[in-house]
Amino acid sequence: MNQSGRTSFATKFGAVLATAGSAVGLGNVWRFPYMTGEDGGAAFILIYLVCVLMLGIPGMISEFIIGRHAGSNAARAYRRLAAGKAWMLIGVMGVLTSMIVLGFYAVVAGWCLQYLYASLVGQLSGDANYVAAYFNDFTHNPVMPAFWAVAFILITHFVVVHGIHSGIEKVSNLLMPTLFILLIVLVGASCMLPGAWRGVDFLLNPDFSKVSSTVFLDALGQAFFSLSLGTACLCTYASYFSRRTNLAKTACQIAIIDMLVAILAGLMIFPAAFSVGISPDSGPALIFITLPNVFREAFASMPIVGYIMSVLFYMLLALAALTSTISMHEIGTAFFHEELHCSRRIGATIETVVCCVIAILCALSCGAYKGLSIAGRTLLDFCDFLTAQILMPVGALATCLLIGWFVPKRIVRDEFTNRGTTWVKVYGIFLFIVRFVCPVCIIAVFLHQAGVV
Ligand code: PFF
Question: How many angstroms does the Cα of residue 346 sit away from the middle of ligand 1?
Fold first, then answer.
């Protein structure tokens, strides 16, 4: 329990690991490498770093302030802080956004489970054409993608119903270190391949000729997605933080862990891809079509190592996805539990049922039922676009405006500095960024997307 009588994470370390678990996910191991591959390597990484520093960290602190101060689910937290019902809508929008994200994210996480199974039983060992056809056949199957997506949500449900301490914190304390160990093993094996240095060079030597305005947009969107910003996730987790937690320091620690995992994921994928001369710019298909070929060719002389690498890699993906789906699920669980005055178990069940329906529709839209499309995109692509490019930035923008302009400054300062005891000197910089820099940058991105600038 924290001082206000609300359940809380048992230790500071547990709180950081659970929140870092939300941030670390498919965004780091899947989205970040394929975007880096498409957007020019190190130049993209540098811009991404600036986005995390200038927009991501202040955005995280803002959500933390709202969540910890209110000590409730996101919808109630936004209403409490601004004393206005209209702000509650931002919280409700965060809850809805997280449900849509969980729906489509579980589909990709389910693909990882299928690939983990396929690696284990040796189904991925054919040539390049076979691997491409395997992905196509699987995603067009009317049953299997939906089955794995629902299975993933049920595993998530199982963790979340056990509560904050016995469920979320315990599982994060176990999964996060496991994830790091898997990652280090895979990076080591990849960097020892002949010619691997070309991949390291691609990641560490910026080529600014590739930088265009789209690269800035991609980097900003990726920063929001990767730090779980704008979905009320950080706000919900912060409601379980202790009053003594230093919010700014915690945000920096999580951003560093998140960045480190993303760079390590790059160091795992690019050296192996370059060592066999496969281009890493194949977009979202990178890990499901390109990588099985990389594993096969890079370890052609030692197939058993290729087999182990492939199993460990898809296991890593599934675990990373799980720590994130747990956090998405908790947003809705807390919301239903507190707003409908039902038990946590029933709240979690409502969240699970709704997300399973979204996930099944998204899974079917990828091939089995092409009719499930909106504005020329499959439902899965549409949900990804709607959340990452529209709802999450709008949520982050509203949060910054709320903290910067509408919440009484005394509350913001007290939460940021833990009542004047820590990080007092940086408070002014934080407030300036949240009031001016974040809103201007996010609005600029929207105007650019709309073709106005
Ligand atoms: N940050 C997660 C990732 O990088 O995979 C994705 C995510 C988690 C988005 C939680 C939204 C959320 F609420």
Answer: 24
Query: Is the separation of the CB atoms in 59 and 227 below 8 Å?
Result: yes
| Fold adopted by 12-449 | Hydantoin permease (1.10.4160)
What is the pTM assigned to this prediction? Answer: 0.94
Summarised one tens digit per residue, pLDDT across range 327-380 is 999 999 999 999 999 999 999 999 999 999 999 999 999 988 888 999 889 999
Residue 98 CB–ligand 1 contact under 6 Å: yes
What residues contact residue 435 under an 8 Å CB cut-off, 6+ apart? 400, 404, 405
| Ligand 1 mean position, distance from CA 135 (Å) | 24
From the CB of residue 311, how many other CB atoms can be counted at a distance below 10 Å?
19
What phi and psi, each to the nearest 5 degrees, are found at residue 3?
-60, -30
The domain ranges of the chain are 12-449
pLDDT tens readout for residues 226-249: 999 999 999 999 999 999 999 999
User: Which of 327, 383, 391 has most ligand 1 atoms within 8 Å of its beta carbon, as the pocket-test mutant?
Assistant: 327
Give yes or no for residue 97 CB within 6 A of ligand 1.
Answer: no
Cα dihedral angle (327, 333, 339, 343), rounded to 10 degrees?
-140
CB of residue 100 inside a 6 A radius of ligand 1: no
Select from 101, 176, 263, 326 the residue to mutate for testing ligand 1; criterion: most ligand atoms less than 8 Å from CB. 101
Could you tell me the distance, in angstroms and rounded to a whole number, from the CA of residue 224 to the centre of ligand 1?
9
